[in-house]
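Attaching the record inline, Q. Sequence:
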Amino acid sequence: MLGSWWVASVLDMPNGKVVLVSWVVLVIGSIVLHELAHGWAAIQRGDKTPIYTGHMTWNPLVHMGQTSLILFLVFGIAFGAMPVDPTRFKGRHASAYVAAAGPAMNLLIAIVCAIFGGLVLAFEKQIGEPLAGNSLMFFSLGVMLNVVLMLFNLLPIPPLDGSRILADFSPSYARLWMSENAQWVALGLFLLVFFFAGDYIIPLGFRAADLGIGFVAGLFS
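Structure, as predicted:
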């Protein structure tokens, strides 16, 4: 499995080992925090399902499962899941609140990575190499990845978080995806977006990393 094409491609890059370790840590960590954010939000709104099912844990195996881990080993991408019961939610637009918590966590992680990355860039000489370069690589990837995850999850296509947010504010949109045929259409759209949206979203992630880290570093220049 570790001989998969994406691992070999990453290892061929300059500082490939650093990129590989950073990517593994960031993908797994970001998915776990994203799912925990859904869980925390659900609990706040009265649903204890995340607790009862044992998903309020830092264990990535619980959140990702075998299918996601295999996908990660083969393609370098993965997904997670947090079981919730919307019928237990309390408060207006609770479903939207719970759904938005995941992308909000990704935004928070991106901001934190931008702050630390900016500090590393601003004090690069004092930190010295290779620590400064490796740290900057890690935090840059952290911003890029989490901006991409946030934007991707906010797309209004089932089963992404964006569809749940929109469905909570638009009953007609929610009804649109209820039939069996509509669910197959949603699956087809999701697969198209999953495989092709990266060409548009990933460059935005890299741009956000450059701008965010550069902005923070500029505060200390």
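Residues 34 and 102 are 4 Å apart (CA to CA). The radius of gyration is 19 Å.

More tomorrow.
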